[in-house]
Structures are given as C-alpha cells and as structure tokens.
Design a protein that fits this description.
Number of strands: 7
Number of helices: 9
Helix content: 40-55%
Strand order of the largest sheet: 3-2-1-4-5-6-7
CATH architecture: 3-Layer(aba) Sandwich
Strand content: 5-15%
CATH superfamily: NAD(P)-binding Rossmann-like Domain
Number of domains: 1
CATH class: Alpha Beta
Length: 256
C-alpha cells in the first residue's frame, strides 16, 4: 500500500473529488481527517468508507475561508490521528453567470476567501505541523482548468484557481529544504454534485461534451488516483507542478 501509516487531511471530503480521495487514500493505507462545511451526512458516509477500508477516520466541520477554523481543524486532527503527513486541499466553491461589471462585492470576497485563501491557510497550518514533526510531507491542491482557461462570467473563480497554481510554484521553492512536495491537479469537467445541474441538462451537457475530445465528464475516482500518486513516494521527485486532467478539454479550447 502506497500510503501505509500516513495521516492525511482532506478538505471538502463529504462528496465528489474529496470523498473519492478519502476513500482512495484509505485503501492505500492512510488514516484520514475528513472535513465538511455543511454536508455532515456526506462526511459520515466518507467516514464509513474510510473505516471499511480498515483505516481510522476523524470528521470535523471546517470553514476554509476562516483561518481560525482551519487551525482548529488541524489541531483536532493531530489530537485524533497524529501529525498529518499529507494534505489534499480540495474544499472550494464554484460560480458562474456574474460578469465583472455586475459583480457583488460580497460574492467576490466569498469566492476568493474560499478558493484561494482557503488553500493558503490550509497549507500554512500543514506546514507548521510538518515543521514541528521534523519536515517531510506532501501537499496536493485541487485546482481547475479555469486557472489557465478564460472564465467569462466567473472571473473571481478563475483568478482564485490561477492563484493556486502560483502558490504551488512559490511553495515548492519555500519548502524544498523541508522536503515537502507541493503540486496541484487541475480537473476539467468532473461529475460531482457541483456540476450535476449542468450534466443533467441535455442542452448544457451536449455543449460541454462537444468541447471535450474524450466525450465524457471525468470521474472523481480518476482525480483521486492522481492525488494518490502525488501523495506517494513514487512522486518524490515531483514538485511545483500543476497536472491537468480534463479529457483533452484544454487542447480543444481554441476550437471549441
């Protein structure tokens, strides 16, 4: 098992990519701190899956847009499971249909605090924990192809995800001496609760599939598999990179 004996903190693990990652990490031998914002039932289902894989689970409500909540999460996870070795900063929110000229300041602040500052605050708490433990560890941010593709109507989301890509590069240099690897995954359209409305609408789904050469949405389990690799010793020489996983969407964007 590639993550045997490790402790992972996975934010937003109540559904979608976070839930799939928690299950995959547990199957590879990691104990998992599962966080949720509002979906406690989803988080408890993730706990069940982790424990069914024979690993320990710790469930905590956390608001990644609040640095105090993030620090409380890491303190609680350390008490329950031990010092974290791995971080998957997955929690986030989407937005669409809000041109910059019509943008509400409160909405802008919410998106930036959740999708950019949240990963930063999670990384800060993780780094502090790893320094206290003597170094080592791996950080995987879950970003988006929106970090490098045009995002008309959702500029703050694209800004936040582009910022995560920049954070990956900066942290990879800051943390090299501590031997903390830092990478990100930029998924395309993945079948999760966040995208369910688009996929359920025949017109929207059809338009989306036309833009994806592979002709289907991705599965959370596929992103989780890449996250496992980046969290494992097999990726020891990988840092500072954003890995795009989108069925060819980015390659097709100019002609879509």
């Amino acid at each position: 098992m590639r993550l045997e004996g490790k402790v992972a903190v996975i934010t937003g693990a109540d559904s979608g990519i976070g839930q799939a990652s928690a299950e995959a990490f547990a199957r590879e031998g990691a104990d998992v701190a599962v966080t949720y914002h509002t979906d406690k039932d989803g988080a408890e289902e993730t706990r069940r899956r982790v424990e069914a894989a024979g690993r320990r689970a710790f469930v905590a409500q956390a608001d990644v847009s609040d640095p105090a909540s993030v620090q409380a999460l890491f303190d609680g996870a350390a008490r329950a499971l031990g010092a974290p070795d791995l971080l998957v900063a997955n929690a986030g929110m989407g937005m669409s249909g809000m041109p910059v000229a019509e943008m509400d300041d409160a909405k802008f602040d919410q998106v930036i605090r959740t999708d950019l500052m949240g990963p930063l605050w999670c990384a800060r708490a993780f780094i502090r924990a790893r320094k206290a433990a003597g170094g080592g560890g791996r950080i995987v941010f879950i970003g988006s192809v929106a970090g490098h593709l045009p995002t008309a109507g959702s500029a703050p989301y694209g800004m936040a995800k582009a910022g995560v890509n920049s954070l990956v590069r900066s942290l990879s240099r800051e943390l090299a001496e501590l031997r903390i690897n830092v990478n990100a995954i930029a998924p395309g359209l993945i079948a999760t609760p966040m995208t369910q409305e688009r996929l359920d609408d025949p017109e929207k789904r059809g338009k989306s599939m036309e833009a994806i050469p592979w002709g289907r949405p991705g599965r959370p389990e596929e992103i989780a598999g890449l996250a496992v690799f980046l969290a494992s010793d097999a990726a020891d020489y990988v840092t500072g990179q954003t890995w795009t996983m989108d069925g060819g969407l980015t390659m097709n964007w100019g002609g879509a």
